[in-house]
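INTERNAL AUDIT FORM
Audit reference: QA-55
Scope: verify that the stored structure record matches its stored sequence.
Auditor: D.O.
Record contents follow.
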Amino acid sequence: MPFLLIVQIVAVIVAIIGAVLYFLADYKNRKEEKEWRRKNGS
């Protein structure tokens, strides 16, 4: 397997993991924000 191909595969995996973590963090923040707004009655 050529070295550049390995580098590309690793880059794709890192990008996917980063996107998933970003999505999960964003989703969690939105959920907490909704609950916080509901508690404060606005």
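Auditor finding: record pair retrieved intact. Helices lie at 3-40.
Action required: none
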